[in-house]
Amino acid sequence: MSRRRALAAAGAMGLAAPGARAQEGWPARPVQMVVAFPPGGQADVAARPVAAALERVFGQAVPVVNRPGAGGILGSASVARAAPDGHTALMALSSLGVLPESERIMGRAPAYTMEQLVPVARITADPTVLLVPAGAPWRTLDDFVAAARARPGAITYGSAGNYSTLHVAMAMLTGAASIELLHVPFQGGGPALTALLSGTIEALASGPGPALPHVKEGRLRALACWGRERIAGFETVPTFVELGHPEVEFYIWAGVFLPVATPRPVLERWGQALRTACGQDAALRRALEAAGSPLAYQDSEAFSAFVEADTRRLTRAVQRIGRVE
């Protein structure tokens, strides 16, 4: 089922009387915003200011609940299986569409499928940035690639887990540059970034938001970015496209999803609330910009089309990676 058909199915369910009753006085209690990763990563950076803005719209508490595990599978599956009453939402990353395919590659039944979730709104869409410690000997991408070719498999890089967005981004680079690196998976972008800062790993593809403060403080160095254009806050950092790798382009997006059977009136209430928050809440916009992850809002229809196209592209990348033991 496509995203648009899933949304239509959810709408049809919402026409029934139970759906109408579900909206009366909604929300009548706090609404959870689930993040399937530990605190400090890209999803967390988006979720916290969005939750604060929604509290002002809903008039209810919107706690952010971190449910890490299995590279994002556990938290995402918990929302896919949650009661479809609109009181549990997911702030997901682009890995959401990758994980079911990675499970199939590993010979396991997926813990959830994309058909179980409805895209409600996109919040951010940031290219990843290649980071190394400030004390590393590599000052340019050419330096890094040359070192990797001289010592195949010796340079370590982290990710938020096997087949996570950060893993897929680096796999695009290693394939395009014909280099071999040693992958060290963590349970989220936050722990991976901490490992880079402590010297446990030597490189990382990171969302620009979590990376920016450490680059500004001089603790990390950015060598290149995966965007088609340079990123605000990283204006001196060239893109892989500029550096001769036109196929190396990747974005970490963050967006809100609800269980597919959520009644149409509640879906519409969520859509209206997020449109209001993203369009009118200056504190939300300032928080995202300060984190280096500016607002890139899309409504449900546009986001659904975006997710379909992005999932197809990332699924192909995961299939190229193949089985990871």
TrEMBL record:
Entry keyword set: Signal
Protein name (record): Tat pathway signal protein
Record family assignment: Belongs to the UPF0065 (bug) family.
InterPro entries: BUG (IPR005064), Bug_dom1 (IPR042100)
Pfam families noted in UniProt: TctC
Signal peptide (residue range): 1-22
